[in-house]
């Protein structure tokens, strides 16, 4: 199945695009039970890929039907994507939903796991949006139409430090499962609407605790900066890229987000001014807040800077052309925050293997049968080059920091402290 073929390749791309992927609460997803994952949807293509490649269970996804033309239906089918149509897609298409929902019930009967992006649309925002009723209807439908004992709804929050920005942190929070059977008695009593309403409300309440939540629109941009600063204060290992059961990052950033939402308008205005001054001071000194980033393995970082250079250089050469093409095409197709990372990763999924073939053809007269090793070495060197770029950038900022006079350092530290003092 194409799903199984693409899964490891996509995992490799995602772990190259993002600096850290934290998955917490994996044990909350029941095994060998019918499961619906209730997931937020801040980035069109990205969180499905993150979940498919970092959760243990094979997933099926409900996706927008208007994206599925006859020419690509085979691809969606082979990658476990089930098109669902809306009123705007026309009545003839809406009629296909009955067949798709029936297939969903069959999957649940077979103890399958279906991811439902239950906010109903894609908006790149750090906030839980209203939950649509479709997931509750599917859960009740599975019990009613396939005589299931229960369907478990597992709330999932996919939290991006910044979805479009490469080399940032993704935190996946998986909550305790909700038993649909606990609400089904009202359906049996003929109170369908009340049951759907209550279950939908509970899903939203659970998801809220698993996501960053900045309630005010006018605070989102400044909050992005401050949450990044707070994340830099959390000590993390550089390796491995993906970790489970590391709650520190999410808890620290989430708490900071709640504090920002609770602030008085006057206090937040002060924070905006201080943040503006802080960013200006950093820029003037050629610095970024990542200079305050904490690592658990500083010795490994320095050793890597020395020994990794030749491998990173080779990887950078292999990556240069595909990266240029991917970023150029993405900028022309769509620059919206919701689509940037998805388009880029789709591009890398196509171009890295393609250019590996091209390089293999070029080197075949020289290497002969050993050319096959390039299929492993090129992706490896590319990954090393991305990691090395991170390390060299951090080292550069540390070097710049060490050249500052003590009063300049104190000024930046004081501004940073003022931001968090105001928030807390």
Molecular structure report:
The chain is α/β, with parallel strands linked by helices and 424 residues long. Helix content is 58%, strand content 10%. The chain has helices spanning 2-17, 46-54, 73-78, 91-94, 97-109, 134-146, 181-188, 192-208, 220-232, 248-262, 265-284, 298-307, 309-333, 340-367, 374-402, 406-423; strands at 20-24, 35-39, 60-64, 81-84, 113-117, 152-160, 169-174, 178-179, 242-244. Strands 1, 2, 3, 4, 5, 6, 7, 8 and 9 form a 9-stranded mixed beta sheet that branches. Strand 3 (60-64), helix 3 (73-78) and strand 4 form a beta-alpha-beta unit. Helix 1 packs across helix 2 (46-54), helix 7 packs antiparallel against helix 8 and helix 14 (340-367) crosses helix 15. The chain starts with a helix and ends with a helix.
Please give a quick description of this structure.
With 424 residues, the chain is of the alpha/beta class. The chain is 58% helix and 10% strand. The protein has two domains: 2-214, Glycerol-3-phosphate (1)-acyltransferase; 298-403, no CATH class.
Q: What series of H and E elements makes up the topology? A: HEEHEHEHHEHEEEHHHEHHHHHHH
How many strand segments? Answer: 9
Indicate the multimeric state: single chain
What is the level 1 CATH name of the largest domain? Alpha Beta
Give me the secondary-structure category.
alpha/beta
At CATH level 3, the topology of the largest domain is Glycerol-3-phosphate (1)-acyltransferase
Number of domains: 2
CATH superfamily grouping of the largest domain: Glycerol-3-phosphate (1)-acyltransferase
Let me know the largest β-sheet.
Answer: 9 strands, mixed
End-to-end Cα distance:
51 Å
Assess the beta-strand content as a share of residues: 5-15%
Helix content: 55-70%
DSSP summary: helix tally: 16
Going by CATH, the architecture of the largest domain would be 3-Layer(aba) Sandwich
Give the averaged pLDDT, no decimals.
93
How would you describe the shape? globular
């Amino acid at each position: 199945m194409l799903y199984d073929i693409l899964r490891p390749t996509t995992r490799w791309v995602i772990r190259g695009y993002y600096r850290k992927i934290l998955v917490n609460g994996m044990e909350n997803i029941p095994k060998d039970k019918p499961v619906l994952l209730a997931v937020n949807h801040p980035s069109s293509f990205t969180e499905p890929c993150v979940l498919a490649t970092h959760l243990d269970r094979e997933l099926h996804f409900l996706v927008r039907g208007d994206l599925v033309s006859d020419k690509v239906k085979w691809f969606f089918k082979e990658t476990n994507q089930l098109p669902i149509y809306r009123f705007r897609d026309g009545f003839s298409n809406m009629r296909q939903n009955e067949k798709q929902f029936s297939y969903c019930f069959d999957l649940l009967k077979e103890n399958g796991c279906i991811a439902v992006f239950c906010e109903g649309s894609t908006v790149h925002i750090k906030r839980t949006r209203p939950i649509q009723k479709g997931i509750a209807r599917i859960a009740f439908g599975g019990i009613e139409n396939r005589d299931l004992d229960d369907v478990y709804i597992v709330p999932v929050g996919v939290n991006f430090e910044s979805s479009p920005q490469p080399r940032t942190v993704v935190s996946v929070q998986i909550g305790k499962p909700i038993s649909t059977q606990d609400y089904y008695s009202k359906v049996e009593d003929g109170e369908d609407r009340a049951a759907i309403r209550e279950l939908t409300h509970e899903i939203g309440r659970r998801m809220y605790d698993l996501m960053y939540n900045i309630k005010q629109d006018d605070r989102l941009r400044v909050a992005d900066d401050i949450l990044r600063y707070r994340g830099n204060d959390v000590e993390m290992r550089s390796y491995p890229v993906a970790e489970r059961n590391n709650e520190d990052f999410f808890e620290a950033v989430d708490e900071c987000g709640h504090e920002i939402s609770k602030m008085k308008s006057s206090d937040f205005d002060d924070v905006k001014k201080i943040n503006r001054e802080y960013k200006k001071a950093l820029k003037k000194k050629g610095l970024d807040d990542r200079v305050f980033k904490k690592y658990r393995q500083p010795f490994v970082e320095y050793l890597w800077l020395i020994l990794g250079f030749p491998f990173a250089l080779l990887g950078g050469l292999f990556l240069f052309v595909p990266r240029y093409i991917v970023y150029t095409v993405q900028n022309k197709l769509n620059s919206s925050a919701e689509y940037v990372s998805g388009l880029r990763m789709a591009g890398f999924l196509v171009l890295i293997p393609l250019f590996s073939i091209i390089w293999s053809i070029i080197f075949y007269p020289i290497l002969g049968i050993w050319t096959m090793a390039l299929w492993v070495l090129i992706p490896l060197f590319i990954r090393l080059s991305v990691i090395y770029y991170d390390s060299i950038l951090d080292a550069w900022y540390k070097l710049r920091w060490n050249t500052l006079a003590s009063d300049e350092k104190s000024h930046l530290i004081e501004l940073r402290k003022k931001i968090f003092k105001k928030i807390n």
